[in-house]
Amino acid sequence: MGGEELIKGVINNSNGLEETIRVSIRLRPLNEKELMKNDSSDWECLNSNSVMFRSTLPERSLFPHSYTFDRVFGIDSTTKQVYEEGAKEVALSVVNGINSTIFAYGQTSSGKTFTMNGVTQYSVADIYSYIESHQDREFVLKFSAIEIYNEAVKDLLSLENVPLRLLDDPEKGTVVEKLTEEILKDRNHLQELISFCEVQRKIGETSLNETSSRSHQILRLTIESSARKFKKSESSSTLTATVNFVDLAGSERASQTNSGGTRLKEGCHINRSLLTLGTVIRKLSKGRNGHIPYRDSKLTRILQNSLGGNGRTAIICTMSPARSHVEQSRNTLLFATCAKEVSTNAHVNVVVSDKALVKQLQKELARLESEMKNLKPLPLKGDSTSLLKEKELVIEQMDKQIKELTRQRDLAQYRIENLLHSVGEDRIFKLSESTVNTIPDLVDLDLDLRSDDSSFKAFDESSLKTFDTFTAQEENSPHKIDPLFTMNHEDDFLLDSSTPELAGPDPYQDWEEIAERVHANSEDGCKDVQCIELEESKESVNENGDLTLATLEDNERQMISSFDNPETSPQRKNKEIIPINKGHTYDGLIQKASEMEKTLNCIVNLYPSEQSFSSIEAAKQKLKLARSKSCLTVLMTIPPSTLIEKVEDDKKTRSIGSDVNFSGKAEGSRRRRGLSCGILEANLDFKDSQSVCSRCSDTKTLQIIDEDDDDNTSVLNFATGKRGKSKNRIKKRSGSRLGRVSKKEEPKETTQEVHTEEEKELQAHSEWMLEFEGQQRDIIELWDACNVPLVHRSYFFILFKGDPSDAVYMEVELRRLFFIREAISRSANGSGRGDTVTQTSSLKALNREREMLARRMKKKFSAKERDALYVKWGIDLKTKQRSIQVARMLWSRTKDFDHINESAALVAKLIGFVEPNQVSREMFGLSFSLQSLDHRSFPWKRNMSLPF
Ligand SMILES: Nc1ncnc2c1ncn2[C@@H]1O[C@H](COP(=O)(O)OP(=O)(O)OP(=O)(O)O)[C@@H](O)[C@H]1O
Do the record's keywords include Coiled coil (predicted)? Predict the structure, then answer.
């Protein structure tokens, strides 16, 4: 392999070129002396790689007979051959930047010096030939020479006979201190120096009066080469390597020196280096696992890199063919055998130029500096105080950051709210302009929605045309949302699955139908009571200044008149076009009741249990909810006894009976009146329902009810909340509250104890509050029994807080709940006309509903998201902006009747959250929404005027 090819191989192998030491054997011819003694040779070169010992002596027959090496040179081989085939390749590696060493090992006078001189000369000649043939490269050659004698290192180029110290250099390994290194001018210069070294060595040996070499000589030629094409300003790499020509002292043992004193000492030292060399080679031949005793001798220390290190090595073992030297020859072969096993790992030694080195170092420095910056100072071990201070500092900084971020967030939110407000106000203003004057129309239209969706479309197109987001697409798809609401992704949860669609019919549908008819039949009485209420509310309105009495009266009358007039009332028209009694047979009602139960349960199950009364109350406290005074005022205007009085009237027409066949077309209010009463009478059991009115003793309604105290089985008794057997039950259930009721039933006795009007008022108020709380508790119990949706509970709870005018609503709520409870109870018990609805089947149906809803919810939200959604639902409502967004969304949802109860409750909740002084144009839209929604969920408030 040529030098160039070798380099290629080395460069391609980043791990270096691993190869074994090249070992050659050279047999010299018998010299004259040996010939004279007939010291014939027993060694025979079998071929170019093997040498064999042919002994006729029986005692040596046990010796190994043949040895194989990289190359075996016989007595006829020339030094040129030895060089070419055994050393050249290794020696010339130096010009390619690879360290190399050529050893000559053998006993005294075996021809080491003879061979090494020739190898050195040939190498130098080839090196210079290589340099001359590579003009593109610039070469610098340096020469140095050392002699190791008695473990002392001598500089052969120096005339001073001063031993040199060996130093350990981290990069170069072991170096000889103060060693003379001549930069060669040319080839002749090198020859002169080599000759000088030879003379120097011989002088020393002559002084020993010995012909044989007692020292180890190392001639060292260092070659640096770099490409000439690079300018000085450019960074270029330089190859640098050293070739060692090592002529070792004779390897014979000290014992064979037959000398004592100084000679023995010399022999010991000589052998020390040689023995160490042998040990190192032997150990290296077995691998590099154990300790390699390079440092045990100067020789091995200096040649450490050449022995199993970074460099290529060739050993030429010289042998004397004389029979008398057969032992040393055999030892030489054993050494050679071991050396053959040693492997080296040569690398190309690239020296970076100073400029390149500076650049490289600068880069490294920059990298380290950046690393240093990134590194946080490590706290001292055990220094908990400093660690604590450091942590506190970090916390302090984080606190500052949090404050700053919070401030920025609040600022951004404030700006967004302002922006939204201005945008929303502009849109709602347009809406309000087009709709504010058409409230009665809206109501009428709304009443038509259930039976005719086209009317709603008309409603959209006429009244909501300014809502540009109500697109034709949305009209066809009620579940699609106004893009206005999707500007904030958080609104998404309000749009679909956050309020899961309820399966089945509207649970309140029957109730509404019934209540509507009851209301329709109670028109006359309504007016009477309304007058009283209006008188009462007049003061409130004036005090608050929210609405004028005229406005309220106008609104009320307008609504009532539109309702009363069968010709103009859209609802009535509608009812005539689509018979409301369709499906309102006994079986139909039972089925509806069953569906109602399912749906109620489903609604309740949609809300986590923590949304209980207590949590709502707590949330209310936390949010400091304030019921709108305006709303309160308007609520007070609603005739409380309308339904009751009209039902009272209906008692007289009840004879139409429960068995009325409803298949025919309805003909006016009389027919409907009979229908309503028939339904109530046929399906309800009133054993417990009369207790409702026990808490309404201070109202006009209660007074009316009290007059009719005997009939416990009629529809009217249920509707008017008769006392009967249930009175005792209420006494047991209500406990101390009954006492309060009794007190109220005897107001005169109480008032006798008070002396001033003021005290009377206080006492009356106190009693009412006690009564109110009692009613609240009863309603809550009934809510649970009827599985009333929590949104409705929230709505009711927020709206009615104990104002005296709340009494009527409390009463109606109690009756409604009794109605629902009775219907559920009947359905569950499978009573009436062989109805087969059982508790088990109801539960199964309920479970199916639950599973279906759960699947829907899971599709849209994960459990975590659902929880967050519920929380968010409540929390976000506290802000006005959010409330308006929700209101807008609800507005669009009026198309979707499955959500109507929930929407109504939420809108009402919004009203409860908004203070009167916060009412703005946006709230007009909200009020319309409430108005249209409220009729379905709370039909007894159909005629109420909205607060804004
Ligand atoms: N291959 C050879 N052909 C002819 N003569 C040789 C050969 N090898 C050695 N000689 C001669 O043998 C004698 C001893 O050789 P050399 O001095 O090289 O031995 P050595 O191993 O260096 O001995 P020492 O270790 O004592 O220095 C020399 O006179 C040399 O000329």
Answer: yes
> Looking at per-residue confidence, does 115 or 892 come out higher?
115
Residue 33 C-alpha to ligand 1 middle, in angstroms?
13
Of 306, 326, 352, the position where a domain reaches its end is: 352
Q: Is 605 in the pocket of ligand 1 (CB under 6 A)?
A: no
* Claim to verify: residue 327 and residue 424 sit in the same structural domain: no
- How confident is the model over 691-701, as pLDDT tens digits? 333 333 333 33
Q: Is the pLDDT of residue 715 over 80?
A: no
Q: Going by CA atoms, what residue is nearest to atom 8 of ligand 1? A: 111
Atom of ligand 1 nearest to the CA of 77: 1
Mind listing the pLDDT tens digit for each residue in 341-360?
888 888 888 776 677 777 77
Domain count, the chain: 2
Q: How far does residue 59's CA lie from ligand 1's centre (Å)?
A: 29
Mutate which of 24, 28, 30, 105 for ligand 1 pocket (most atoms within 8 A of beta carbon)? 28
Q: Whose CA is nearest to atom 31 of ligand 1?
A: 114
Mapping DSSP to helix (H, G, I), strand (E, B) and coil, where does residue 68 land?
strand
Nearest atom of ligand 1 to the alpha carbon of 318: 21
Return the minimum-mean-pLDDT range out of 60-69, 398-407, 498-507.
498-507
Q: Which of 74, 107, 70 is nearest to 86 (CA)?
A: 70
**Residues 426 and 337 grouped into a single domain:** no
pLDDT tens digits along 897-911: 444 445 545 555 554
What is the residue range of 254's domain? Answer: 19-352
Atom number of ligand 1 nearest to Cα 28: 1
320 lines ligand 1 (CB under 6 A): no
Atom 20 of ligand 1, nearest CA residue = 109
- Looking at the predicted structure, is the pLDDT value of residue 827 above 70? no
> Looking at ligand 1, which residue's alpha carbon is closest to its atom 19?
109
Residue 236 pLDDT exceeds 60: yes
- Cβ–ligand 1 distance for 108 under 6 Å, the answer yes
By most ligand atoms within 8 Å of CB, the mutation choice from 113, 120, 316, 317 for ligand 1 is: 113
Average of pLDDT values for 136-161?
Answer: 88
Of all residues in the chain, what percent carry a pLDDT higher than 70?
43
Q: What are phi and psi of 376, to 5 degrees?
A: -85, 145
* pLDDT exceeds cutoff 70 at 775: yes
DSSP symbol at 100: E
DSSP codes, 829-877:
HT-STT----HHHHHHHHHHHHHHHHHHHHHH--HHHHHHHHHHHHHHT
Bridge partners (DSSP) of residue 155 are: 146
pLDDT attached to residue 143: 93
931 contacts 437 by C-beta, under 8 angstroms: no
Q: What rounded mean pLDDT belongs to the chain?
A: 61
Residues 301, 165, single domain; the answer is yes
Residue 387 domain-assigned (yes or no): no
Statement to judge: residues 323 and 456 lie in one domain: no
| 471 and 334 inside one domain | no
In tens, the pLDDT along 38-54 reads 777 778 888 888 988 87
113 is in an annotated binding site: yes
Q: Are 581 and 673 in contact (CB under 8 A)?
A: no
Q: Which ranges in 496-641 belong to alpha helices (H)?
A: 509-521, 523-544, 549-564, 570-577, 586-605, 613-623, 629-636
Q: What is the mean pLDDT of residues 178-202?
A: 86
For residue 141, the domain's CATH number is: 3.40.850.10
Same domain, 521 and 622: yes
* Nearest residue (CA) to ligand 1, atom 11: 111
Q: 113 in ligand 1 pocket by Cβ < 6 Å?
A: yes
254 and 154: one domain?
yes
The verdict on whether residue 106 carries a ligand-binding annotation is yes
Global ipTM: 0.98
Q: Determine which of 101-115, 860-874, 886-900 has the lowest per-residue pLDDT on average.
A: 886-900
Residue nearest atom 1 of ligand 1, based on CA coordinates = 28
What is the residue-wise DSSP string for 382-448? T-HHHHHHHHHHHHHHHHHHHHHHHHHHHHHHHHHHHHHHHHHHHHHHHHHHHHGGGHHHHHHHHHH
CA 116 – ligand 1 centroid, Å: 10
